[in-house]
Amino acid sequence: MKTVKEGEVRKQEILMVARELFVTKGYEQTSVNDILKIVDIAKGTFYYYFASKEEVLAAIILDIVEEGAKRAERILKDKSVPLVNRIMMAIMAQSPEFEGSEEIRDEMHKVDNAKLEQLYTKAMLKRMTPLLETAVAEGVAADLFHLDYPRETIESILLLGHMLFDCNIMDWEMADYPAKIKGFLANMERMLGTGAGELEDFLQMFA
Amino acid sequence: MKTVKEGEVRKQEILMVARELFVTKGYEQTSVNDILKIVDIAKGTFYYYFASKEEVLAAIILDIVEEGAKRAERILKDKSVPLVNRIMMAIMAQSPEFEGSEEIRDEMHKVDNAKLEQLYTKAMLKRMTPLLETAVAEGVAADLFHLDYPRETIESILLLGHMLFDCNIMDWEMADYPAKIKGFLANMERMLGTGAGELEDFLQMFA
DNA sequence: TAAATCATCGACCGACGGTCGATGAGACGG
DNA sequence: CCGTCTCATCGACCGTCGGTCGATGATTTA
Fold first, then answer.
1. Please, what is the Cα angle at A150 between A148 and A155, to 5 degrees?
2. Tens digit of pLDDT per residue, chain A (207 long)?
3. Most-buried pick from A1, A47, A107, A117 (CB within 10 A)?
4. CB contact under 8 A, B184 and A118
């Protein structure tokens, strides 16, 4: 039988299902037919809304990045919290790691999803850098940070945070994490030019 | 007609052709048939030597990483050069960027090659970190560097260098590069704990 | 020279991403 | 109330892909 829905509704259905599958099974490992079966539509309908499987991926990545940026923005805006805390929390909250159930997150790390990862990294940097740039500028003005290349430093911190902890490329033992996190925080302190040890308090945030 | 060759020779032929194609056209965009046509063998022969297309990719990446590591090792060994210079040169020479013709390099950046990139990054970090770890330890002993997490810091520097300058994910204007390079060197100084400005001389190395 | 081993062949397979012309459903004007 | 028009849906079909396999040619060994 033919079930007709308004265009935007169908589009969102496809996006929702595809996102779930791409994240849990991997982009390459998810076939268009997998999506069709769950949304319960024919192939023609899928290609009526999207020009290609890759276009769906691009749309999903935009969504994920935007959601992360919104979470970060909300945190950054709350002036009742000390600036350093806001920045740390924004960087952490931005990560899609902190969405969804624990099971999904575990699955995510097993799957090879190079294309999704690469596109996400690119889009995330583009979206997040300006947000943190204003925050860091605030810190420089308040004499909390001392650095010459704020934009480049933010890019580096975001990139490192993502590649080291979110991305699935580092296969570390659980026992390695404390050192990795301490190292990351220590280097973050040095790059931002805070007083040494000023970021150590955030160690327990990585739990 | 059937042309018989010794196993290892054929294997290297396949590897050579596949590498050229993967790097210039991209891994996904290169079909096994593309390789077959150039090596001039039948499908069965390809799968007689490799279990899958992906196995060929893995072998190629191992080769590329190993070649880079060898270049780095040679440089690191030359004690007539100041340690800091050796380290900087090793990090640069390790990159596959500095192999091959300029045209191939240009093509490389246009192609989407997420899978190759991701596997390469992982393998390169694993292979290069120990090399630089001993070099940095030498620098610490000589009071040139001052840092608490040498391994983590090296990982970060390698990762940043690769992601910012070798990988194709950052689409910068030519005009952005000076700031990006200066920023990278400044952060490297801070992470390693050298005297400020000690790495500035290496700016012209990025040409 | 017969047998055993190694290397090569290409027809074939199922699954994939994507195309397209036919057709159903709902809105709207007369 | 019906004809028409548009939007949404359908699924058979297509070329290509990565991968399989049994047959067979070439080479080495006994």
1. 135
2. 567 677 799 999 999 999 999 999 999 999 999 999 999 999 999 999 999 999 999 999 999 999 999 999 999 999 999 999 999 999 999 998 767 666 666 667 778 899 999 999 999 999 999 999 999 999 999 999 999 999 999 999 999 999 999 888 998 999 999 999 999 999 999 999 998 777 677 777 766
3. A117
4. no
| Tens of pLDDT, residues A79-102 | 999 999 999 999 999 998 767 666
How many other C-beta atoms lie within 10 A of the C-beta of residue B195? Answer: 9
Q: Do A183 and B153 touch (CB under 8 A)?
A: yes
Who's near B60: CB < 8 A, 6+ residues apart? B15, B18, B19, B22
Q: What is the 3-state secondary structure (H, E, C) of A112-136?
A: CCHHHHHHHHHHHHHHHHHHHHHHH
List helix spans (H) across B95-176: 102-110, 114-141, 150-161
Residue from A27, A90, A108 nearest A60 by CA: A27
Cβ atoms of A152 and B176 within 8 Å: the answer is: no
Q: Do A152 and B122 touch (CB under 8 A)?
A: no
Give A-chain residues touching B109 at CB under 8 angstroms: none
Q: End-to-end CA distance of chain B, in Å?
A: 49
Q: A22, A28, A29, A118: which to substitute to probe chain B, counting the most B Cβ within 10 Å?
A: A118
Which tokens in the block code for residue B166? Answer: 């070798």
- Residues B10-23: b if buried by 16+ CB within 10 A, e if exposed: bbebbbebbbbbbb
Is residue B129 within 8 Å of residue B112, measured between CB atoms?
no
Note the strand C nucleotides within 7 A of protein beta carbons: 6-12, 15-22, 24-26
Give the orientation angle of helix B150-161 with respect to helix B114-141, to 10 degrees: 140
Residue whose structure tokens are 């308040």: A142
Q: How far apart are the C-alpha atoms of A194 and B179, rounded to whole Å?
A: 22
